[in-house]
Specification:
This protein has 391 residues and is of the alpha+beta class. It has helices at 3-25, 34-97, 116-122, 126-129, 140-155, 200-235, 245-262, 276-283, 285-301, 326-341, 366-382; strands at 102-106, 111-114, 160-166, 174-185, 188-198, 267-273, 308-313, 316-321, 353-359, 388-390. The protein folds into 4 domains: 3-90; 99-198, PAS domain (Beta-Lactamase), CATH 3.30.450.20; 203-235; 245-390, Reverse transcriptase/Diguanylate cyclase domain (Alpha-Beta Plaits).
Length: 391
């Protein structure tokens, strides 16, 4: 029985009781007041009935409104429940569709949800993962990293990510990037959503690339060394280690350009060993080669670093003396002549040289300069050797 009907029934019983009581008392009414009492009783009875009907209607309306609200709430709850189920199914479908491991865990660190990729990673069935914690799935080191990253994810609004290596599973160690984001409801975190991206192939490729880069660096170093050696062989005389004629010609062109621009005094010396063929014929080419090397050493010791020394060819040598006047060049050559004469070359005779010296002039080019100094050398040879001819 509904509350409205129950109340109406109680009132109706009350009215009936009044009626019974009234009829019971009627015989006691005085005759002269009988009609009046009947009228009063009838009016009261009618008013009671009207009151009951009005009260019933109001109760019925209130009941209908409550019933309507109840039905509306039930419909809303049903609708919201359906929407929540649809959202849950959609979320589950999405994470199952994602090919990388995805998980959701509460603030206690218990796994509430995960996809098949995460189950495959841990080698544990999905249903058995629910309720477990990281220490139940991974090594101590990985668990410590996971717990520390959980705290960082809860402390910041943006997605937190870090690189790690997951080992201790049945598969080989995996290089991964782990992404974590706090799930916020009513401005409070209620859990952590995470995803694990396997970058093992990229890491292996990167390591191979780094190894290849190291090999390339080694090869480059070898090539640079070889290039330096090749360059040295290309510009230096193999026997005396002085510049060869090719390098000398390049240097001569450079100093001619500098002289043309700045007019700094520069001198050129050309000399050769007297009677060198005779020395070779008597003592052999090995002794001759040693004499050439010793002579190159004497020149190197007794000249400046800025001076250009070269083996012109055979037993002929040349020197470019930058920032040197003709007079100073003569002093340098006299010193070299004496050093050569008094040096012990390991044969029972002294070695002498004939020298030609010329100064750069504004009208000179390489050919004119070399011809002039070469003529001076031959003049020294023709005048008896072991002498110096200059401008």
């Amino acid at each position: 029985m509904t509350p409205n009907r129950k109340n109406f029934f109680i009132l109706l019983v009350f009215i009936l009781l009044q009626t019974i009581i009234a009829f019971t008392l009627i015989p006691h009414f005085q005759e002269e007041n009988f009609v009046q009492n009947i009228i009063i009783f009838g009016v009261a009875f009618i008013i009671a009935i009207i009151f009951v009907v009005v009260f019933y209607k109001r109760q019925q309306n209130a009941y209908n409104q409550i019933l309507e609200i109840k039905n509306t709430l039930e419909q809303e709850v049903t609708k919201r429940t359906k929407e929540l189920r649809e959202s849950e199914n959609l979320f589950k479908t999405i994470i199952e569709t994602v090919p990388i491991p995805v998980f959701y865990k509460d603030l206690e660190g218990r796994y509430i949800l995960c996809n098949k990729a995460f189950s495959k990673l841990t080698n544990i069935e999905q249903s058995k993962i629910i309720g477990l914690k990281s220490q139940d799935l991974f090594s101590t080191q990985i668990t410590q990293e996971f717990n520390a990253s959980d705290k960082k994810a809860l402390e910041q609004k943006n997605t937190y990510h870090f690189e790690s290596t997951i080992s201790g599973l049945k598969s080989k160690p995996l290089h991964v990037v782990i992404y974590k984001k706090a799930l916020i409801t009513e401005e409070k975190p209620i859990g952590i959503i995470g995803a694990i991206h396997d970058i093992t192939k990229q890491k292996n490729a990167q390591q191979k690339l780094e190894k290849s880069h190291e090999k390339l660096k080694i090869q480059q170093s070898i090539l640079e060394k070889n290039y330096g050696e090749i360059k040295e062989h290309a510009y230096k005389d193999e026997l005396t280690k002085l510049y060869n004629r090719k390098k000398f010609n390049e240097e001569l062109e450079t100093f001619l350009q500098l002289f043309a621009r700045y007019a700094d005094p520069t001198a050129l010396v050309l000399f050769d060993i007297d009677k060198f063929k005779e020395i070779n014929d008597i003592h052999g080419h090995l002794i001759g080669d040693q004499i050439l090397k010793d002579l190159a050493t004497i020149i190197s010791i007794n000249t400046r670093e800025c001076d250009i020394l070269a083996r012109w060819g055979g037993e002929e040598f040349t020197i470019i003396l930058p920032k040197t006047t003709k007079e100073n060049a003569l002093l340098v050559v006299k010193k070299l002549r004496e050093k050569i004469i008094y040096h012990d070359f390991g044969i029972k005779r002294s070695i002498t040289c004939s020298f030609g010296i010329t100064a750069f002039s504004q009208n000179d080019d390489a050919n004119s300069l070399i011809k002039r100094v070469d003529d001076m050398l031959y003049e020294a040879k023709n005048k008896g050797r072991d002498m110096i001819i200059h401008d």
